[in-house]
Amino acid sequence: MIDNINGISNPIYYALTKNNNLNIAIENLKIREGTIPKYIGYINLKNETSRYSERLTQTDIQKFKKFALKNKIDAIIWTDLHPNFKNFSTINALKYIESKKKDERLYEKIIEYIYLCYIHGNIRTPITKKFL
What we know:
This protein has about 130 residues and is mainly alpha-helical.
């Protein structure tokens, strides 16, 4: 998720699809993420169409386009989800995580997710730093 207010820069990973049909690629990502089409952002450089949330700035979009052009990619897609928190802050997120300690299984899943993002995704956030 891109959060230009509370987020910090992290690595972006990508994969090329064997499929040459953008609509099928969007459908596949939608199914994988268990979401609806409006939460799959895309930029199609071939026909200059796009869909993305209002949270993205024109600077973000230009970075995506530059990345696509540099890598000779016709289109890019991403999961364009909204934040789960109405008033997100590191403090509120930590309070939320701590409130889940009562449900040991859920709490362990949250910590496992943070750990896996750190190990496999190289994701470094203020929240990650509090737990690892």
